[in-house]
Amino acid sequence: MMNLTPRFWRRAISMLYESLLLLAVWFIASFIFHFVFRDTTAVYFKPLFQFYLLFIAGIYFIWFWTHGGQTLAMQTWKMRVVSADGSKLTTRQAITRYLFAVIGITFIGFGIIWAFFDRDRQFLHDRLAGTRIIKVEN
Fold first, then answer.
1. What is the pLDDT of residues 81-106, one digit of tens each?
2. Which of 52, 95, 111, 125 could make a disulfide contact with 100, Cβ separation 3.0–4.6 Å?
3. Any residues with CB less than 8 A from the CB of 46 and at least 6 apart, and which?
4. Is 2 part of a structural domain of the chain?
């Protein structure tokens, strides 16, 4: 296993692929949500639905990060997320990473753009959560 940081573009393409996979997960989750909450005109529907999708995405990422350190897209692009010391992510680190990633991406992608200025080329959410993305060779 090599401990080099993958290039920014490799990570960006992986995120694009990840968004397609997440879209499929959200499609199935949305079907279930709409089946349970049939009244889409209720005032509580939209914020509840948005929170639900964020929660589903969180479960998806946190589970993969704590069970092998790789989502499906990361496996394809031969990357893994690890603790700053190279060990497996804890559940707390995974939750922290997810929440900071959501915040960083929401603010005009600031958390992603941060990698251009970071000394180790890490995303802001990795820096704040004490994690990093590394290349792996199989």
1. 999 999 999 999 999 999 999 999 99
2. 125
3. none
4. no
Are 94 and 57 within 8 A, CB to CB?
A: no
Any domain includes 45: yes
Which range marks the domain in which residue 123 is found? 8-135
- Hunting for tokens 């200025």 — which residue is that? 117
Q: What are 114-135's pLDDT values in tens digits?
A: 999 999 999 999 999 999 999 9
Total Cβ atoms within 10 A of residue 2: 9
**Number of independent structural domains in the chain:** 1
Look-up of token digits 């792996």: 136
Encoding tokens for residue 1?
A: 């296993």
